[in-house]
Amino acid sequence: MRIRLPRRAARWKTGGASAVVRATCTPHSEERPVSEPEPNNPAGPVVYRSGQEIECWLTDMDGVLVHENHAIPGAPELIQRWVDTSRRFLVLTNNSIYTPRDLAARLQTSGLSVPEENIWTSALATAGFLKDQMPRARAYVIGEAGLTTALHESGMILTDQDPDYVVLGETRTYSFEAITTAIRLILDGARFIATNPDATGPSRDGVLPATGAIAALITKATGREPYTIGKPNPMMFRSAMNQIDAHSETTAMIGDRMDTDIIAGMEAGLHTVLVLSGITQREDISAFPFRPNQVLPSVRELLQQL
Ligand SMILES: [Mg+2]
């Protein structure tokens, strides 16, 4: 399949499926010739950015690796390649419903074998943020096991008695009573945190109201905006990079949305790869005031470069 690149990414040179691909992200930096991979390099061929090897990968899940519970062609092989070559990588999701173990099991049924330690959710990022801000804080939580488990494991106390925070996450059983409690606690001074800003989520029968929609309801009633952790807050990526000891200069982000994955990746200083297998289509890209470093039809084409 022919790979079309945006103007900036056209500076990349490809030398065929087995060749090293090297990015020159600094406009005036000197081009260096494309080099062949070391024959005995156990990590195999690699992607370079400004002469430095991309050592770590962050990737979005829906629209990049899976679509409606089916693995996107190339995704299982990409994950396997990273596992086999001991690459540091994390699969990111704004969904805070599931624990990494639950998500790994769900991905497995979609045909993707992702170790649970390679999954990073907005719930984990939120737990890490709160632990950093106020160790052993008290929190009133609206959410599912993915969020409550992460908060418990980070040492937080879950309570509706005088909490320091109200933490809102994704749930399929929003209760008017719980929302009322959250509103009253925020009005009494609890700080308002949301795991992710998504207004809707997908389901087989159509869209579902998601965390952002419920947050808007609470904001309307309290006049207080939440601090939101998930994408497009670069906090999500920074926390993920901390988890795998990655550095922005040598980390890439793969996503299917310009308005979340790519903007947040750019703001976190990462090399950004937009795949067209999800939300953003090629004709949408030019409307945004920023560009991904690379545009590919899907991860299958990325796999060919690795
Ligand atoms: Mg996506």
UniProtKB/TrEMBL annotation:
SUPFAM superfamilies linked: HAD-like
GO molecular function term, any single one: hydrolase activity
Region annotation (Disordered) ranges: 23-46
Keywords: Hydrolase
Alphabetized InterPro entries for the sequence: HAD-like_sf (IPR036412), HAD-SF_hydro_IIA (IPR006357), HAD_sf (IPR023214)
Record flagged with keyword Hydrolase: yes
Family annotation (Pfam families): Hydrolase_6, Hydrolase_like
Keyword Hydrolase appears in the UniProt entry: yes
PANTHER family assigned to the protein according to its UniProt record, in alphabetical order: 4-NITROPHENYLPHOSPHATASE-RELATED (PTHR19288), HALOACID DEHALOGENASE-LIKE HYDROLASE DOMAIN-CONTAINING PROTEIN 2 (PTHR19288:SF46)
Family the UniProt entry places it in: Belongs to the HAD-like hydrolase superfamily.
Name used for this protein in its record: HAD family hydrolase
Lineage: Bacteria, Bacillati, Actinomycetota, Actinomycetes, Micrococcales
